[in-house]
Amino acid sequence: MVPAGLKTTARILLALGGGYWASSASFALLARVLTACGMPRVDAVTLGMMLVFILYLCLILWVFAARRVWLPFWVLCGLIAAGHMAPFFFTQGH
Prior knowledge:
Blueprint: H1 4-36, H2 41-65, H3 70-89
C-alpha cells in the first residue's frame, strides 16, 4: 500500500511539472498548426499564449480530480510527445 503523502506528492509533481511541460509542448504545436493554417505568426503566438493558460489550469485540475493518476500521466506524455514531434510534420519548407 502506498502512503497517502506519497500519492499527494506524486500528483503535485505531475500537475505542476507535467502540466507545465505538456502545456508548453501544446503551445508549440498549436502555434505551428495555426501558422500552417494561414494565420499570421504574431497572431498565432498570441492566441496560443492565451489558450495555453486555460489548458494549464485544466490539466492541473484534472490531475487532482482523476480517480487514478495513470490516465492523466499518459495523456500528458502524449501531449508532450505530440508537441515535440510537431517540427517534423510542420516545417516551413526548409
